[in-house]
Amino acid sequence: QILARPLQLLYTKFTNRVAKSVWIGEKGVIAPNVKKGIHNVSIDDNRMWRGSRFTFNPILMGNEDKVVETWFAGEHGDVGGSYYTKGMPDTSLKYMMEWME
């Protein structure tokens, strides 16, 4: 069994079905070999309102003790760094790096 280092980013997309992932699992539980994780979530995420077949809600890890979930201002790309908005993705990255130390 591989012992994983801290999982730094939880990112799963899904449509109208439950997400399936090695890390998250089918029931929203982190794999036992992951000791701790951080989930940075965008509070202004509007992807769930677009009405397309890619509409989804974020997977929240509120019941998982090994995961710290923190909400940040901005859309999904602002928090994850897909959009270049000076300072916004830097804030969530800095928080994640400090938390992992």
Automatic annotation (TrEMBL):
**Domain called T6SS Phospholipase effector Tle1-like catalytic: residue spans:** 30-98
Pfam families with a match to the protein in the record: T6SS_Tle1-like_cat
Tell me what this protein is called.
T6SS Phospholipase effector Tle1-like catalytic domain-containing protein
User: Whose protein is this, by species?
Assistant: Chaetoceros debilis
